[in-house]
Design brief:
It is built from 8 helices and 10 strands. By secondary structure, the protein is of the alpha/beta class. Helix 2 links the parallel strand 2 and strand 3. Helix 4 runs parallel beside helix 5. The radius of gyration is 16 Å and the shape is globular. One of its GO terms (biological process) is NADPH regeneration.
Length: about 220
Amino acid sequence: MTIAIIGGTGPQGQGLALRFARAGVPVALGSRDGARAAEIGKDLMAQLGEGAAFITGLANEDATKAADELVILAVPFAGHNATLAALKPHLAGKIVVDIVVPLAEGDPKKVTMPPEGSATEAAQALLGPDIPVVGALHNVSATTLKNLDWDINCDILVCGNSLPARKSVMALIEKLGVNAYNAGDAEAARCIEAITPILIRINISKQVPFTHAGIKIWAPDH
């Protein structure tokens, strides 16, 4: 099953492409510049060993068409709505996985939520009820994703209005060797997306002896 990553030439998109390809999932890496996507796809493939699935760099529209079911949106929030509007004609029958966080302009330690409440809800409103949107992978460090010598050090919270779509996305994410938790409908994205600037603040703090932290759901000891 081929997945598409739109905005795949950015740090988080590249990291996800590496992780999914290593897990055996073919990736169509999308960019506004198809030639640049093709070059980056080749560079990413050079980092992978035998047995990895193929990463193909394409223009955004072609990458979307190449996806069998799942299209991951990994663009900056400034291009979020325009990208979805352009791709909407090609998204019928597919699930959009929105990983975008509406970080405040000039201050990534804060969010500026859109009128709909979150980027996930904005995507669902723009695409309409027939194209399910699932929010996921908001709180993962791009640096961690790109370093294949590191395990992904966090759990993944998944939300969206369609339960079957949530389950499909959770199954995909679990191929990366991480736990994915059903966090409920799309409104939960208001909380999940807002965790990212808190993690950024912690990770850049001089008082904290680590970086690239994530979140974990811990079971009780009893």
